[in-house]
Amino acid sequence: MEQPQSLRVGCVRYLNARPLIRGWPGEVVFDHPAVLSAQLQRGNLDVALVSSFEFLRNPIYRVVDGVSITAEGPVYSVIVAHRGKISDVREIALDPASLTSAALLRVLLDKLNLHPRLVSASAEDVKSDRVLLLIGDQAIHFRQTHANDFEFWDLAEAWKDATGLPFVFALWLVRPEVSDVEEIAEQLRRLHDINLRDIDQMIAEEGEFDHEFCRRYFSDHLRFSFGDKEKEGLRTFAEQCARQGLIPRHDLALNLI
Questions:
Q1: Which of the chain's termini has less CB crowding within 10 Å, N or C?
Q2: Alpha-carbon distance 96 to 31, whole Å?
Q3: CB-count burial class (<10 Å; 0-12, 13-18, 19+) for 84
Q4: How many other C-beta atoms can be found within 10 angstroms of the C-beta atom of residue 65?
Q5: Rounded mean pLDDT of 157-162?
Q6: How confident is the model at residue 98 (pLDDT cuts 50, 70, 90)?
Q7: CATH homologous superfamily of domain 9-72+166-243?
Q8: How far is CA 42 from CA 62, 129, 175, in A?
Q9: In sequence order, what are the beta bridge partners of 135?
Q10: Fold match between 9-72+166-243 and 78-163?
Q11: pTM (2 decimals)?
Q12: What would you report as the CA-atom Rg of the chain, rounded to the nearest whole angstrom?
């Protein structure tokens, strides 16, 4: 197998990815989903835990089976922060780090026959009263700071209500030219198993977020498997994205390893 030290690995820089990357023996590039997806596309990374939408729009990658970042109900950290009725919203500023969540938002708005203008958010927008799509750690901090100031539309919960299926936010993707992919996939699955088994120890090491919140977040809001239900959810999302013109229409073939 290619040595972990020479394998170029990327991972989203959010709390939700900790159980899938803690303990990796080599170096890891941590960044936002959109940045990592661009690096993976260019071949600057060999393997990355990135937005599931990256695979839908560019299905050249091998997908590590059995592992994902998924929600089956409220995810807490992918939200539209708003005041008043969501149906009255005329503009939503999108977190530029997001790929999957921005596509999910478009799908859900179409299902509700809502057509607000979607624009890119800036750092200053988070401090303003604008309606915002927020993801990851920024969404968590925003919710905890502004719990009494905004309402929060949880997109994973809305997806579950609309489809009855889990929503897959992120997958381990491997570029097609990488060798020894089966061993890489096995190592990532072992890391997943170890970290979930030792989740209390992982939480005890957490320095940014309240430990009780982490327990609730990992147990109540997130799932880390990629089984039949998750694959059905991903295929349904692909169909909805194609209907919106976000990706070409094609049969979704998961090249699993």
A1: N
A2: 12
A3: exposed
A4: 19
A5: 97
A6: confident
A7: Periplasmic binding protein-like II (3.40.190.10)
A8: 16, 37, 10
A9: 78
A10: yes
A11: 0.93
A12: 18
